[in-house]
Structures are given as structure tokens and as C-alpha cells.
Amino acid sequence: MTEWIIPCNIKYYDVVGAFKKLKRIDWKQSVKNISVNDIVYIYVGLPYSSIKYKCLVTKVNLSSIEIDDSEFVINGDQYMNYGNHMELEFIKEYSDNVLSLSILTEHGMKGRIQGPRRADSEISRLISSIS
């Protein structure tokens, strides 16, 4: 099992609203080596600027969207026609700012979260200590 951090821009997708209503969502999969049973942490940009969600990967390499979450898609160009998707199952929501960018940076996170990345061991320990 690998742990991943993926970004979400709420100008394009209302992930907060989606997880209030749905327990599973489809997500664009830009990294081919994400596998079923991996853990995905969703980092939500402004105004949150923190990891807000922990999810389990339940399906990978889907050629089309299987779950209708269209009411939460704000800009469909980024999500609807991406071409490769994975299914994420909601596990946990973190309190705002508990895993903020500044806290992640203090624990070794390098740079901004602009694309999928593996959670290194120090970040995994930090998140586990909060879970």
C-alpha cells in the first residue's frame, strides 16, 4: 500500500459538498501506478490550504466516470473528460488547518502541492499521529 497526496482546487470541483453527500467519488487519475487499496489524502487549496480528506482507492484506470457527481463539478474541462479515473472511498475528514501547508512544510514537505505525490515517511507519521 502506498500513500498519496493529491490536490483539489475547489474552483473546479466542490469536494466538500461531494463528500457531504457521497461516500465514493471518481477522481482523475494522472499517476498510473496508483493501485487499489492505496490511501489518498486530498489536499484542498484556498481557502483551506490543508489536507482535508483521507480516502481508500477502490478502483483504478477507469476509462470513464461511473459515479454521477456532476452537481459538484464546477469546471467540467478538468474532470469530466480526463480519460483516466480512479474511485475513491471516503474514510475520514480532518479538521481545518490540522494538516495545513505550513504544518506539512515543517515536517519536510517540499514545495506546493500541485500534482499527485507520494507521502514520504515523515508526512505519513504526522498524518498517522492525527488519525
Name the features.
131 residues; alpha+beta; 6 strands; 18% helix
Written overview of the protein:
The protein has 131 residues and is α+β, with helices and mostly antiparallel strands. Helices cover 18% and strands 31% of the residues. The chain has helices at residues 15-21, 101-106, 121-130; strands at 3-8, 24-28, 39-44, 50-62, 85-93, 117-118. The chain has a 6-stranded mixed sheet, with helices on one face. A hairpin with a 5-residue loop joins strand 3 and strand 4 (50-62). The radius of gyration is 14 Å and the shape is globular. The mean pLDDT is 91.
Per-chain topology:
Layout: E1 3-8, H1 15-21, E2 24-28, E3 39-44, E4 50-62, E5 85-93, H2 101-106, E6 117-118, H3 121-130
Number of helices: 3
Number of strands: 6
Low-confidence stretches: none
The termini sit apart by: 17 Å
- Class inferred from helices and paired strands: alpha+beta
Q: Element order, helices and strands?
A: EHEEEEHEH
Largest sheet: 6 strands, mixed
- How is the largest sheet built, in terms of strand order? 2-5-4-3-1-6
C-alpha-based Rg, rounded: 14 Å
Proportion of residues in β-strands? 25-35%
What is the molecular shape? globular
Please, what is the average pLDDT? 91
Helix proportion range: 10-25%
